[in-house]
Amino acid sequence: MKLRHLIWKELWQRPTPMLTSLLAVTLGVTALVAIQNITVFSERKIAGDMESLGANVLVLPPSVTLQDYYGADMHGHTMPEEYVTRLALARLPGVENLAPKLCVEAEVDTIPVTLTGILPKSEFQAKASWQGLGMLGNAVGSDRGCCATAADTGEADNDPNSLATTRTIAELGDRDVILGRDLASQLGAKAGDTLPLLGEDFTVLTVLPSTGTIDDGRMFAHLHSVQDLSGAGPVVNVIEIMACCEDAAGGLITNLSAELPETRIVTIAQVVQTQIAVNGLMSRLSWVFLSILLLVGGASIASVMYANVTERRKEIGTLMAIGASRNFVTKMFLGKAAILGLAGGAAGFIVGTIVAAVLGPQLLGIHVRPMPILLGVGMATATIVAVLASLLPARRAAGLDPCLVFNDA
Q: May I ask which residue range the UniProt record assigns to the signal sequence (predicted)?
C-alpha cells in the first residue's frame, strides 16, 4: 500500500482526535488573519482620510476627550466664537485656513439631523481687521501661506462643492443649507428644494459629493444662523485649521497654545500616531494569539500522535515486519501532520477573512478584502508547527521493534 493511502486511511478512520487538533490550529490562524486584515485596512483607511481631510489642526474646548478626529465637533462642549477673532488677528505663520464650526441637533419633517454651522470666507473678508490673514490670498513677498493649496487660491471655493474637499466655502446665505450625500438621499432632497429647519425655511444650495466621512450624513448652514436659531449664542464646538507647511506646523502648536491657553490643541499627526500605535499593538497581539493557539494546537497534535502510536503499536509492527522501513513510518506520521497543518492554515485563512470582513465595517467602518499573502503565511506556519509537534511521536513509532511488539501482544 502506498504512503499517501495509509495517511488518508488513518485520517478518515480516526477523525475525532484529528478534528480536535485541526480546530486548535485553525483558531490560531484565524486570529492572525482576522487581526492582520483589520490592521492593514485600518492603516489604509487612515491614509485615505488624511488625504481627504482639509484641516490638520483642531482647536477644542479643554474638557473634550477626543475619540474620533473626524467627528471631533460632536462632543457637545462649546467655546466663545471670539477665539476665532483672536486667531485671525494673531496672523500665525503657517495658518492657511480657519474654519469654526458649531453642531446642533435638529429635525427636518420629524427626521433627526445633525446641523453644522460654518463660517464662509466672505465673513472673514467683511472684517477689515482680518484682511491680512494669509488664507484670504497670498500677497507678493508675504511670508504667509508658504505653500500653494486649493484653499488659498480662492477660485475653487467659489463652487459650493469645495466644502467637501477644502472644508471651506466662499459664499453662504443666511437661509442656505448644504447637504451631505447620504442625508440628501435620506431626505429625498436636491439642490433648489426648501426644507423646514429650526422654524425657518432653508433652500438647498447644493448636495456634496460623497466623501466617505461623517460629513456625508450632515447638513451645513451659516454659523450665525445656526447660533441664532438654536439659541446657542456666539459659540463654536471646534475651530479647524489648515496648516499646510510642515515646518510651520511644527512650531504652530506651541504658538496656538500660547495664543489660546484656554483651549486644547490637537493635530492630525497626534491622532494618526495614536491610531498607528494601536494598529501596531493589534498586529503584535495577533502574533501573540497565534503563538499561544498554535502552541496549544501543537501540544494537541503531539498528544494525539503519541496516543496514536500507542494504539497502533501492533499495526506499526506489522508494517515494519512486512518490509516498511523506519523512514517510511516516520514519513507516514509527518505526512499526516503536514496535512493537518495545511488544512488548518487554509481553513483559518478563510474563517479569519470572513470574520474581518464582517467585523471591519461594524467596528471600524472599513471594508476588508482577502489578502493572499496571509494564506501562505498561515499555511506555512501551521504546517511547520504541526510537523515539529509530530517529530518525537514519529521517531517513537519508527523506533518500535516488531518482535517486541508481538511479544507484548
A: none
Tally Cβ neighbours within 10 Å of residue 277.
10
Strands of the 176-179 sheet, one edge to the other: 194-197, 200-207, 176-179, 218-222, 111-118, 95-108, 238-243, 57-60, 264-267
- What stretches of 14-167 show up as alpha helix (H) in DSSP? 15-52, 82-90, 121-125, 150-153
Q: E strands, 164-314, where?
A: 176-179, 194-197, 200-207, 218-222, 235-236, 238-243, 264-267
What confidence score (pLDDT) does residue 135 get?
Answer: 45
Q: Which residue has the cell 494669509?
A: 134
Per-residue pLDDT at 76: 74
For the chain, give percent helix, strand, coil, nearest 5.
60, 15, 25
Alpha carbons 187 and 194: distance in angstroms, whole number: 11
Residue 137 sits at φ, ψ, to 5 deg, of 125, 135
DSSP-assigned beta bridge partners for residue 111: 108
Please determine, for residue 62, whether its predicted confidence score (pLDDT) is greater than 90. no
pLDDT at residue number 106: 92
For residue 258, count other CB atoms closer than 10 A to its CB.
10
Q: Are 366 and 37 in contact (CB under 8 A)?
A: no
Q: Give the rounded percent of residues in the chain with a pLDDT score beyond 70.
A: 72
* C-alpha–C-alpha distance, residues 48 and 275, integer Å: 14
> Between the CA of residue 16 and those of 5, 61, 182, 286, what are the distances in Å?
19, 61, 51, 28
Output the nine-digit C-alpha cell for 62. Answer: 479643554
Rounded to an integer, what is the distance from CA 379 to the centroid of its chain? 26
Distance from CA of residue 380 to its chain's centroid? 27
The predicted structure's pLDDT at residue 222: 94
Predicted confidence at residue 270, as pLDDT, reads 57
Phi, psi of 288 (to 5 degrees): -65, -50
User: Are 343 and 301 a contacting pair, CB within 8 Å?
Assistant: no
Q: What is the pLDDT of residues 215-228, one digit of tens each?
A: 888 999 999 999 99
CA distance 378 to 380: 6
Residue 314 has pLDDT above 50, yes or no: yes
Calpha distance 82→196 (Å, rounded): 29
83's grid cell:
477665539
Reply yes or no on whether the pLDDT at 54 is more than 70. Answer: no
d(CA 182, CA 392): 61
Please report, for the chain, the start and end positions of each structural domain, with discontinuous segments joined by +: 3-48+275-408, 62-262
